[in-house]
Prior knowledge:
CATH class of the largest domain: Alpha Beta
Distance between the termini: 67 Å
Shape: globular
Strand content: 15-25%
Order of helices and strands: HHEHEHEEHEEE
Number of strands: 7
Radius of gyration: 22 Å
Helix content: 25-40%
CATH topology of the largest domain: Glutaredoxin
Amino acid sequence: MNSTSFRGHSRFLDLLLGVGAVAAVVSGGGSLAARASAPALMPVTSYRSASCGCCTGWVKHMRANGFTVRDVVVADVGVVKRRLGVPARLASCHTAEVAGFALEGHVPAADVKRLLQKRPPVAGLALPGMPLGSPGMESAYGKEAFTVMAFTRTGAISSFSQYAK
Length: 165
């Protein structure tokens, strides 16, 4: 194959790839270029006990929402909670870190994205307990209303977001 014919094949392949990208956009799949230009989400490290099934459900929720999650099994999650300054009254089953913030419990990915976008002067977010219907706690028995709390290193606690039944 000479260089002229190679250039012709190359243009043909470029055309096919371009048509494929347009077809993906038209069909709702988005183009490769559009997906590649989307901002990357900060990696999350989640700490949990080996026996916790709902914690793995939360990890799946975060991954489904674009986060890369490192799932770490630890002998004592309390050590991580204390290191990150999670107030005892906001405790839940697992603790995570993202971009210097603590995440306690089943905090929805939408709240984590808002936290990373706004960067308020807080140490982290917590969803105390394990409310039914929160990410990883989906249930055939319904859903509870819950409030995601923000907390500071000095112990101040405030509402970050609320979810209805």
